[in-house]
Write a structure and sequence with these properties.
CATH superfamily: Vaccinia Virus protein VP39
Structural class: alpha/beta
Number of helices: 6
Strand order of the largest sheet: 3-2-1-4-5-9-8
Mean pLDDT: 93
Low-confidence stretches: none
Distance between the termini: 27 Å
Oligomer: single chain
Strand content: 25-35%
Number of domains: 1
Shape: globular
Largest sheet: 7 strands, mixed
CATH class: Alpha Beta
Radius of gyration: 17 Å
CATH architecture: 3-Layer(aba) Sandwich
CATH topology: Rossmann fold
Number of strands: 9
C-alpha cells in the first residue's frame, strides 16, 4: 500500500469509526460457526478487527487473542467495547495488513473479515494475504470474507478498467452517509474466480467457500472462505 493510500485509509476509518461502531454490534453467523470449530488453547488473531465485535467472541472461545487494525480510533473503541462487557482487552496492534508486525508462524488461527476488499490495489491485497500466510503456523486456518460483484446494490456501478483510470475492474467508492457524514470508502468487489486465484497466489489451500446473503435478497453479497497454510 502506498503512503498516500495508507493515510487515506486511516483518515477514512478514523472519521467514521464512531458511526461505524453503532452499526456493527452483532457477530455474523459464519464467523460464529468458524470460531466454534477452533481449539480453545491457541493464539488467534482478528486482522482488521474494526470495533471488535468478532474479536470479543473470539476472546471468549480462545485462550489468547490479538487484534489488528489500521484505525487507531477503531482500536480505541474496541478496547472500550471489551471493558463495557467486563472483559480484559487483549493486545491491540495498529498496523496496515500488507505489513503485519508479527514474527513468522506465530498465529494458530485467524479471522480476516470484511477487510481485504478495502485494500486498494491487487498487489497490495495479495501482499496482505501473503503476510497473513507468513504469520500463520503450518496447518493454521483463516476465515476470510469479501464483498461480491454479484450483489444487486452495486452490480450496475462497478468500475470497468480503462487505461486512463487508476481503478481496477471491480473497484468502487461507496459513501458512508450515516450521522451526517459523507465519507467515500474504497471497496474492491470480487468475482469468485478472482478471489480463489488471489488466495492461491498467496500460498493458501482453500478448504471451503460459501456465498452468503447478509444484506441482499436476490444475489449473494459476501464470499466466506476457510483457507489453510499447508506448511
Amino acid at each position: 500500500m502506498t503512503v498516500y493510500d495508507y493515510k487515506e485509509s486511516v483518515h477514512t476509518w478514523n472519521t467514521i469509526a464512531q458511526s461505524f461502531n453503532k452499526t456493527r454490534q452483532k457477530p455474523w453467523k459464519p464467523c460464529l460457526s468458524f470460531i466454534n470449530t477452533l481449539p480453545k488453547q491457541i493464539l488467534a488473531a482478528d486482522f482488521g478487527c474494526g470495533n471488535g465485535r468478532h474479536l470479543i467472541t473470539l476472546s471468549k472461545h480462545c485462550a489468547n487473542v490479538i487484534g489488528l487494525d489500521i484505525s487507531t480510533e477503531l482500536l480505541r473503541i474496541t478496547q472500550q467495547n471489551f471493558i463495557r462487557q467486563q472483559l480484559p482487552p487483549p493486545p491491540l496492534i495498529h498496523a496496515s495488513l500488507p505489513t503485519i508486525p508479527l514474527k513468522d508462524s506465530c498465529i494458530d488461527a485467524a479471522l480476516f473479515i470484511a477487510s481485504l476488499h478495502n485494500i486498494k490495489g491487487k498487489t497490495h491485497r495479495i501482499k496482505a494475504l501473503e503476510e497473513i500466510h507468513r504469520v500463520l503456523k503450518p496447518k493454521g486456518t483463516v476465515l476470510i470474507s469479501v464483498w461480491t460483484q454479484e450483489q444487486e446494490r452495486f452490480r450496475n456501478h462497478i468500475n470497468k478498467h480503462n487505461e486512463k483510470d487508476t481503478l481496477e475492474t471491480g473497484d468502487i467508492y461507496i459513501n458512508w452517509n450515516k450521522d451526517s457524514l459523507q465519507i467515500p470508502r474504497y471497496y474492491h468487489l470480487y468475482q469468485k474466480e478472482e478471489f480463489s486465484e488471489d488466495l492461491k497466489s498467496a500460498g493458501f489451500t482453500i478448504r471451503s467457500m460459501t456465498e452468503e446473503c447478509l444484506a441482499s435478497k436476490k444475489y449473494p453479497d459476501n464470499y466466506f472462505t476457510v483457507v489453510q497454510k499447508d506448511q
